[in-house]
Amino acid sequence: MSGFSTARQKMVDCQVRPSDVTDARILDAMLAVPREAFVPDSKRALAYLDLDLDVSDGGAKRCLIKPAVMAKMLQAAEIASTDRVLVVGCATGYAAAVVARFAGEVFATESEPALADRAKATLAGLGAANVMVRAAPAAKGDAADGPFDVIVLNGATEIVPQELCEQLREGGRLVGVFALSQPQRAAIVTRAHGDFGHRPLFDAVAPVLPGLERLPAFVF
Fold first, then answer.
1. How far is CA 28 from CA 45, 90, 95, 102, 155, in A?
2. What single string gives the DSSP state of each residue in 114-144?
3. Domain extents for the chain?
């Protein structure tokens, strides 16, 4: 095994499996996708650590969220092989690459155009033909390609992402870290009969996606 292959195995065995992730499709995908390919060269040694890894390219801070947090959210979303999935705030595209291993079609948005371009190039280099990346604000989603069966936030939101929720089809699910109050929690939003239900999943912390921040309160 190469150094990165060993690190990938340890990430799954020591971070993801102990977090009650049992979906074999997710475990296999995370073993197959080279996370180091989505990380700047200067940070490749950090690619498999249990942290939110900054992959910014001179713009707003953008991260690959902790592997276990991402895996637990994907498991909660119960993604089917025929599902159309939107990954919001994809950064360099790692989460989209993982989802692409077991979903039907994957669409991804990233607010930083340079990172969106890097995501496109990296995904193409890995042969992820069922992923399309757009440069777009996180809060806007990708209405042109919706509706979606699943929407995954690659980060946290401090606001109710209503425009994203509206892009779910009937029976659709949105998963992400909600920082509307403390403590932050990963949660799932489901759409049924034209209404939305919200259910907390587990305590989690993640960097807030640009465009999903809470507006500053007005102070006299």
1. 22, 20, 14, 10, 22
2. HHHHHHHHHHHHTT-TTEEEEE--GGGTTGG
3. 3-203
- 51: its two tokens: 């942290």
Q: CB within 8 A of 2, min separation 6: which ones?
A: none
Q: What's the gap between Cα 65 and its chain centre? A: 7
Both tokens assigned to 15: 């971070």
Please name which of 142, 136, 140 lies closest in space to residue 119, comparing C-alpha atoms. Answer: 136
pLDDT in tens, 64-123: 999 999 999 999 999 999 999 999 999 999 999 999 999 999 999 999 999 999 999 999
pTM above 0.90, yes or no: yes
Q: Which helix (H) or strand (E) holds 201?
A: strand 195-203
Reduced to 3 states, what is the DSSP secondary structure of residue 157?
strand
Q: Tokens 């960097």 appear where?
A: 207
How far lies 204's CA from each of 57, 133, 147, 175, 184, in Å? Answer: 25, 26, 27, 12, 6
Burial 109-145 (b: 16+ CB within 10 A, else e): bbbbeebbebbbebbeebebebbbbbebbbbbbbeee
Reference 83, options 159, 1, 175; nearest CA is: 175
Fold of 3-203: Rossmann fold (3.40.50)
